[in-house]
Specification:
mainly beta, globular, 5-stranded mixed β-sheet, 747 residues, 22-stranded antiparallel barrel
């Protein structure tokens, strides 16, 4: 039988504008593929009739892939890359269709929008969230400039937590895997007032020893220790009112990741730079008297995978708290929605960025991040004439976002204290509209617009300020933007459609987070994107075969890129953001599934992207005498030309003995470089990963027992690396082969 991909929480909610009822139901024909319903356009609608490039990842799929946090979903969607920031392991570098950002500085906005229960997350810091007890994850590719909260020029990732059912039920699951990875996840649903009010309590805990060996201390490092608590209430006093309130508290006391320092006497060469006036130099680590002995003695470079020489730093102590309210009212001719969110995150991390026993660059981040958002929407409902007899769907909305942060980095550079501090505020207002009109029974025209006004302020204090040699910098700026989109959709039949889409996106401006000197303080302007896309979504053979195709072409203007400039004081470099580049990306994505026989589902995807700069003229060497060069030949970081996946699920029915499910997945990405400037040490050749799960379920469908494995061929590869402004050079190794067992019980 086809398995439902998402829980249906409100069957009558298709006209309610809150993104609360993301639904997927099994097809009537048990041999056909599931009908998936998504909320990418702020209402529940079938994925196969939604004219957007969306990958919908259901809880069952997350379980099959043994996904526990957001960083693990990159293998489940084409053109998506998610890598942990080794210098700040609570952050993810997110790239969609080649576009993203490597900065976790709170003074700049994310390029890929992350939303949780409809709430935009304003900071990259703290974005490595747990995916426990969720009902769906949607990856929206391409600009989402009109409907997805704050504008998302590259696309967005939307997470929806599981809503409680109005009947008593629950789950307890325990996992144990390699490297002492011990996980517990559980939830309990209970009716609190008949079918009018239901509540849920969820808990997740993970602790592991880490897979990196410190060759100085002999300890395994990089272990995880996270806990998450969630409480949710769902009130449905009538068929037309739904109010979901949820609160979550997260604790992260994990160890810092152990990076490998690969500094040596080899000059760091930018492929497109001119070094006529001053030749390239090696990492400062191998040139400065403070640390050069590490390179002369052979301690560096460290070329042994899964090892580090880092100092024994304190564990992280991060805390996150959030509250979300999602109220939806279907008043017949119109529907109303109010989505309110508050989030607070306290950052306490101690990364040894250089990965050696010397304090070449050791940080201690103490950050506080607070945000509040309010979105109000009104949309057409059924009847009353406002929908023109069913031909018109329309939506109007208003949005407010407030973000406040302060962050101290009590850093040591080459043995010298070099603390920095910054704080800032963002006030963003927007109004938006979207409408769809059926020109004929098969042809639909839709379009939208969003007007945004951003006001920001920023204060920074450099290391020299704390030495009494510099002044505090206070900056303020305002920006506004109008983003448009338009789509023409033709529905040949109920299971075959094509669309063409035009969309614009916007990423707000900002400031240099912590300039090394007041004279280096700068602001950068917003960057924009214009996108053109053709897509088709088709089912064949009574929905046994599904093929979705997207072809896209994007033009990026005013790109925000960071230039490294040498300075004569710790930390001896300044990273300055500038609007100095333009780029184009184009490519194709194909996602497919087939169910040739009742128990077997086969899936495959392939993505190709050609991402390149059309202009990027700057001096990237940090030496003024070298002059500007054309850097358009540089490749985008973390961007592979090819991504592909193939997998299958086979469910063997054992009669009165239960059933066995066999799952295998293979993912591949071609070569990529983890640095903006394409340094040779950070190039990774193509990587293919194999994973598998075997699950036994008893006849009552209450008990499960699984064995799982990831990276089964033990492929070694790096997933991050940087020269840190030329001060030191490191890479981070992705996990080796892992395996484990899992046992679960429903009640």
């Amino acid at each position: 039988m086809a398995t439902p991909l998402l829980a249906q929480s409100n069957p009558g909610s298709s006209s309610i504008t809150a993104p609360s009822a993301a639904i997927a139901t099994a097809s009537e024909d048990s041999d056909s593929l599931a009908d998936i319903v998504v909320t990418a356009r702020r209402r529940a609608e079938p994925l196969q009739q939604t004219p957007l490039s969306v990958s919908a990842i259901a809880p069952q799929r997350l379980a099959e892939a043994h996904v526990t946090n957001l960083g693990d979903i990159a293998t489940l969607s084409p053109a998506l890359n998610l890598s942990r920031n080794a210098s700040n392991p609570t952050s993810l570098f997110a790239f969609l269709r080649g576009f993203g950002t490597k900065s976790s500085d709170p003074s700049s906005e994310p390029a890929v929008a992350l939303t949780i229960d409809g709430i935009y997350q304003g900071a990259v810091i703290g974005s490595l969230v747990n995916l426990f007890d969720v009902e769906a994850v949607e990856v929206l590719r391409g600009p989402q400039g009109t409907l997805l909260g704050k504008n998302a020029p590259a696309g967005g990732i939307s997470i929806r937590t599981r809503r409680p059912k109005s009947e008593f039920n629950g789950l307890v699951q325990v996992d144990y895997g390699r490297f002492g990875d011990f996980q517990i996840r559980t939830f309990v649903d209970a009716p609190l007032a008949g079918d009018k009010l239901a509540g849920t309590i969820s808990y997740f805990r993970q602790r592991s020893d880490g897979y990196v060996r410190n060759i100085v201390t002999g300890r395994d490092v990089g272990g995880l220790f996270t806990q998450s608590f969630r409480v949710g209430l769902l009130a449905t006093p009538s068929d037309t009112i739904s109010w979901y309130v949820t609160s979550q508290y997260d604790i992260d006391k994990g160890e810092e990741t152990g990076v490998r320092n690969v500094s040596d006497f080899t000059p760091l060469v930018i492929p497109t730079a001119n070094y006529a006036a001053s030749p390239p130099v090696a990492s400062t680590t191998c040139r400065n008297a403070f640390s050069i002995a590490l390179c002369r003695s052979g301690a560096l470079p460290n070329l042994d995978r899964y090892t580090t020489q880092a100092l024994n730093m304190p564990r992280r102590n991060n805390r996150g708290f959030s509250v979300t309210s999602d109220l939806a009212v279907d008043a017949g001719p119109v529907a109303f929605a109010a989505v309110t969110g508050f989030r607070k995150f306290k950052e306490r991390v101690f990364p040894d960025i250089d990965g050696t026993q010397l304090p070449i660059i050791d940080s201690h981040y103490v950050g506080n991040f607070r945000q509040f958002s309010q979105e109000l929407r009104v949309a057409s409902g059924d009847g009353g004439g406002l929908d023109l007899g069913g031909k018109l769907n329309w939506l109007l909305g208003a949005y407010y976002f407030y973000f406040d942060y302060d962050r101290l980095n009590d850093q040591i550079s080459l043995g010298v204290p070099a603390p920095t501090f910054q704080d800032g505020q963002t006030n963003s207002f927007a109004v938006f509209a979207h409408a769809e009109y059926k020109l004929t029974d098969k042809l639909t025209l839709s379009g939208g617009a969003r007007q945004t006004w951003d006001r920001k302020s920023h204060t920074s204090k450099s290391a020299n300020f704390f030495r009494g040699l510099d002044t505090q910098v206070v900056q303020r700026a305002s920006w506004d933007n109008l983003s448009l989109d338009g789509t023409l959709q033709y529905q040949f039949t109920s299971d075959k459609m094509v669309f063409v889409r035009y969309a614009e996106g916007y990423r707000g401006g900002g400031f240099t987070g912590t300039p090394s000197n007041a004279s280096l303080a700068a602001r950068f302007e917003p960057e924009t994107v214009t996108s053109y896309e053709f897509g088709s979504k088709t089912d064949f053979f009574n929905k046994r075969l599904r093929i979705n195709v997207s072809l896209f072409y994007n033009e990026y203007s005013n790109l925000q890129r960071t230039i490294t400039t040498a300075v004569p004081f710790p930390p001896f470099f300044a990273q300055l953001p500038r609007n100095i580049a333009a780029a184009k990306t184009k490519g194709i994505e194909i996602e497919s599934q087939i169910r040739p026989i009742h128990p077997l589902t086969i899936r495959a995807s392939v993505g190709y992207i050609d991402a390149y700069y059309t202009s990027f003229r700057a001096n990237l060497t940090g030496v003024a005498a070298n002059g500007d060069t054309d850097n358009s030949a540089l490749h985008f970081p973390y961007t592979s030309k090819w991504t592909a996946s193939a997998g299958a699920t086979y469910v063997a029915e054992l009669g009165d003995a239960g059933k066995l499910a066999f799952v295998a997945d293979y993912t591949y990405r071609s070569s990529y470089n983890t640095t903006d400037l394409n340094y040779a040490f950070a190039r990774q050749s193509g990587v293919g990963l194999l994973s598998s799960t075997i699950t036994y379920t008893d006849p009552s469908d209450r008990y499960t027992l699984s064995v799982y494995g990831r990276n089964l061929t033990n492929r070694g590869y790096i997933d991050n690396g940087d020269p840190v402004g030329g001060l030191t050079t490191f890479v981070g190794d992705a996990p080796p082969r892992t395996w484990g067992v899992s046992a679960g019980m429903k009640f």
